[in-house]
Amino acid sequence: MNLRELEYLTAVDEEKNFNRAAERCFVSQPTLSGQLKKLELELGVKLIERNTRHVAMTDVGAEVSAQARKVLSEIKKIHEITQRYEDPMAGELNVGLIPTVAPYLLPEIIPQLKKQFPKLMLWLHEYQTHVLLDMLKKSVLDVLILALPVDTNEFEEITLFNEPFWLAAPANQSLSNKRIIDLNALNEQEMLLLEEGHCLRGQALEVCFVAGARESRAFRATSLETLRYMVSEGLGMTLMPELAVPKKRLKTDPIQYIPFKKPEPNRMIGMLYRKESYRAETFKNMAEVIKNRFR
């Protein structure tokens, strides 16, 4: 057996789909399937149950896949150790970000990171928090950028910056003519929020609770951009993280973005990485570049 076969096996185990696993491993589906059949012949056991509608691991396949993850993780640590001593700010990194951060933060930080660390290759992955934490634990990802705090103490944490919330209101709403707003102005107001699974939903609910606002039961959005569309159609108000607020705004826009009076509601954005990671110096250097952008 070889390491590529172990990568293919863990990819199928996690994706439960040959096509997605092949895309993830940057090979064709027949190549991946053929290599896994070869692995099964070598081991003398059936690792994967296959049919046209369903892909599942056998009991032995699940155990072999779990062990393969440990092997791949240890191999990765060897590369991290050698990379650290050669140049901590060179090589590849798999960075995970939550959907309410990725599209708004990346344009702010990637140009500076590339300028400061030209030898660093960043592979970016966007998932919800619970998926990212699992991928970090399994060493699929090296570092996460997400909202803190996270309900676990198994990772190292670096605080990057606090991001204020703004009120996004339809232009014809009574609050939209204010230049700045008190949180108490949301008392008894209905707010559009994200669906379950987004950490921003929990943070927004906390703000609503403090303000005396309530969630609209008519609709829950899958993304911030869907929320933005609903507000632009005059269907309600929402809380928008500052990075998602357009820099250029007009009074004629269908959405008015209004900052809150201090102390404004906010969320903390930070980094997480494995405590045993040999690339801790890399992450700390990256964090300093990001912190300087928001000081």
Describe this protein's structure.
This protein is of the alpha/beta class and 295 residues long. The protein has 2 domains: 1-86, Arc Repressor Mutant, subunit A (Orthogonal Bundle), CATH 1.10.10.10; 88-295, D-Maltodextrin-Binding Protein, domain 2. It is 42% helix and 25% strand. It has helices spanning 3-15, 18-25, 29-43, 59-86, 102-116, 129-137, 199-211, 224-232, 280-293, and strands spanning 48-50, 55-57, 91-97, 120-126, 143-148, 155-170, 190-194, 214-221, 238-241, 255-259, 266-274. Helix 1 packs across helix 2 (18-25), helix 1 crosses helix 4 (59-86) and helix 2 crosses helix 3 (29-43). It is globular and about 70 Å long. The mean pLDDT is 91.
Helix content: 40-55%
**Roughly how many Å is the radius of gyration?**
23 Å
Number of strands: 11
Q: What is the N-to-C succession of helices and strands?
A: HHHEEHEHEHEEEHEHEEEH
Low-pLDDT sequence parts: none
Q: Let me know the average pLDDT.
A: 91
Query: Could you tell me the strand content as a percent range?
Result: 15-25%
Instruction: Identify the quaternary structure here.
Output: single chain
